[in-house]
Amino acid sequence: MAYKDLREFIDELEKRNLLKRIKVPVDAELEITEITDRVSKFNDARNVALLFENVRGYDIPVAINLFGSYERMALALGVENLDDAANDIRELLKLPYISLKNRMNIVSIISTASRAINFPKYVKNAPCQEIIEETPNLDKIPILKCWPQDGGNFITLPLVFTKNPKTGKRNVGMYRLQKYNSTTTGMHWHIHKNGADNFRDVQDSGENKIEVAVAIGTEPVTTYAATAPLPRDVDEMVFAGFLRHKSVELVKCKTVDLEVPAHAEFILEGYVYADELRREGPFGDHTGYYSLADDYPVFHVTCITRKKDPIYLATVVGKPPMEDCYMAKATERIFLPLLQQIIPEIIDINMPFEGVFHNCVIVSIKKTFPMQARKVMHALWGLGQMMNVKTIIVVDSHVDVQNIREVAWRAFNNVDAERDLEIVHGPLDVLDHSSPFAKFGAKLGIDATKTWKEEGHLRDWPDEISMTPEVKARIDYLWRSLNLD
Length: 485
Description:
The protein is of the alpha+beta class. It has helices at 6-15, 31-41, 70-77, 87-94, 106-112, 194-205, 220-225, 236-244, 323-334, 336-342, 372-381, 404-414, 417-420, 469-482; strands at residues 19-22, 49-52, 62-64, 121-123, 131-133, 153-155, 158-163, 170-173, 177-179, 184-186, 209-216, 249-252, 259-261, 266-280, 283-284, 290-291, 294-306, 312-313, 346-350, 361-365, 391-396, 421-427, 440-447.
């Protein structure tokens, strides 16, 4: 199902009893976070999406935790479960007109398989422009202060639209925005992000600013697409159309040369100067720690357009599990088929919540030659955002990587510390606080596969303990009569 806008998704959640309206007055500073954090930690029916209808000092409701479970994330993507979200890509890879040389490249796949893609549809009139505020005022929006040591209030689910000055290609990323005052925010695009690439190209071109538009409160697939680790040349709005099986409607901004989702709740239009920096942060981040304050570009808001009665969509990040964990899990499942095209021995992959996705990857492989686990580690470290992964654990094909207990048992038992640990140096996520240097440091690969004699293990490797199939079958037959359930 392709939702027209955020409200349709909220209606669907409410229909399924997956959303709760909060009518009690609450504060946008810290209180919404504390409520949301408690709800997100429930692992039962109490973990629901929240719509705060009475935010003190504002007449705009706040929606949060909409994607904060496997069920709601799958519902957002219009699938039964997150593994189904990869099926379109798997089917696309089977098409006869996808050439062999392009099967590892999502850019080529999407451009070649145009028959399977829903390209953006451009409209002249849009709900996101029902109200036009040429004198913008961010103070009217219930922007949250999430954690006590945060440097201010932060817009946490913004879709940031820019164009590359050299190619004219659109990029949409999700970069937090710290509100400085009624018309300016920080622009927290990390050095590794495509939005930062566009900004650097503007600086190199000699231009003094880059135009920016920020959409807040888009339909769920469009929101997710802004978080996806796509190559620079893949348009996130094309990717969203592919996932939702329907084109994303875009409309031209009123004051900048950019197109934005027509059904968004808010659009912030403005620019970022090429030579202006301001202190941004600290910010309670998805690692569960505060990311440190640093200097970032400044977004000047020159116009706000919105719906007549908008809903402000936000998220809170912190110690997992939280809403962003399920969005990242969607990425893990959706991009697995492409990962398997590049590294075909991969059976499955798990980026556990506790590793906050860029700190730990567990991967199972079909091992056919010595030191293959090392080959897989280095291949992963050479792929896009995978370059930031701090720990990679490789296990054999029959291991269920989604079962952390099983993975831990094998890693703790199978690893010889001298032989099976691979330490390398390279890029790390900007948010990593453990390395003595910012943005780079040491990374660890753990080969927890069965070690072969060709790999230097000359002793016999013992068999795993398991019952015979015949005994299992007999006990299966007797089980109900034993009254042990």
